[in-house]
Amino acid sequence: MAAAVSIVDVVKCFGALKALDGVSLEIAEGEFFGLLGPNGAGKTTLISCLAGLARPDSGSLSVLGHDVFRDFRQARRQLGVVPQELVFDPFFNVRETLQIQSGYFGIRKNDDWIDEILANLDLTGKANVNMRRLSGGMKRRVLVAQALVHKPPVIVLDEPTAGVDVELRQGLWQFVRRLNGEGHTIILTTHYLEEAEALCGRLALMKQGRVVALDTTANLMAAHPGGSLEDVFVRTMNQ
Amino acid sequence: MIGFWTLFYKEMLRFWKVAFQTVGAPVLTALLYLLIFGHVLDDHVQVHGVRYTAFLVPGLVMMQVLQNAFANSSSSLIQAKITGSIVFVLLPPLSYSAFFAAYVLASVARGLMVGVGVLLATVWFAELQVVAPLWVLLFALLGGSMFGALGMIAGIWSEKFDQLAAFQNFLIMPLTMLSGVFYSIHSLPGFWQQVSHYNPVFYLIDGFRYGFFGVSDVAPEISLAVVVACFMTVSLLTLGLLKRGWKLRA
Hints:
By secondary structure, chain A is α/β, with parallel strands linked by helices. Chain A has helices spanning 43-51, 72-77, 94-104, 111-120, 136-148, 166-181, 193-199, 217-222, 229-238, and strands spanning 5-14, 17-27, 32-36, 58-63, 66-67, 79-82, 154-158, 185-189, 202-207, 210-216.
């Protein structure tokens, strides 16, 4: 069985800066995987390479066996990405935004699933509201909805709860847990370590473009008895 | 194909939602040009045996087709890049050729919509004839496509609105204003007549005008050949940039 995500020896430089320095990872289907690290560790660059938004200088990446560059159509169909930045198209309302995003993935009549996502993300009442009129938290929910319109088996959440209220966080995690329970592979980057500890079965800790620790959450915690994930994180980063 | 049609539909919807600005305003601008220049020159000037106002109308129509086709793709791309919403079209499995075709086709649609609007608004002020409608349509389609593709290059290249404005003000505006919209190049001094022959927009305007009056500064077949060559060049360049992901994918 192909891994959900396979990343082999990926190097990516921006000028003199080596954003990714030989990263290799394999994430199995159905995993809830956490990608942790301080700002500038390379998490978003790695996700960008996986999503085809950035081209690595060397190495290879694949999603469910499909190379993200040679077989980009299949790879992108398998992947749903919630970007870190709060971006939106100001011309459209929420429903139009989701219908258009479905169409990009080759899905025409998708309203039943769109309604389900809207209900799960508590957006039903905002379906016909222009994106400009939504609060930051609501816009974040729409970003999550956009990533899910094509029912991707692999979902990448790049700091999805940054700057959102507790209610949304809980609702979002409940929904994402359900998706994971239904077999979706989840890759999460977050600075909220308690979220990663509670949700992720396995973690990769990144520092300066490298994976410096990779293990199950339980094993990482066991290596530092009595400590929290935050302690594990701080010790690993200071090594 | 659904991805392509969706992107085309989205681009159409984008300008249609602000049609007052994207369609209405250029029609009004063209009408003002016609009223002012027509009032001043109609009794004194004839070009190719045609009254000045009638001569001016096709030029204004084509100028607005070109400028609005350019504005559509360029403004859509720069806005998407600056707001970051470009990721919504970069993440899906859209091929670069579908990307190109959707943006160019929507630009042509806006250009033609404005062109028809200008024609409907100005036709009352001039005795207009259309002796070769197929030439009219052909040059309008090629012109809209060429400037739609050029708009994509400008939108991809620009990182800020002022860079796009520079592209528009220092390249597109001079090319269109100095292409024979307002005059026949035969009325220019010899040197400037020669210079005009290096302006591809001159051939677009001249060929388009031929469709109305059956007369032109150069043979329409020559204009068509030049325009097709320019369109192919601009399209290949745009497709190359999209394939490489230049300034779109890091």
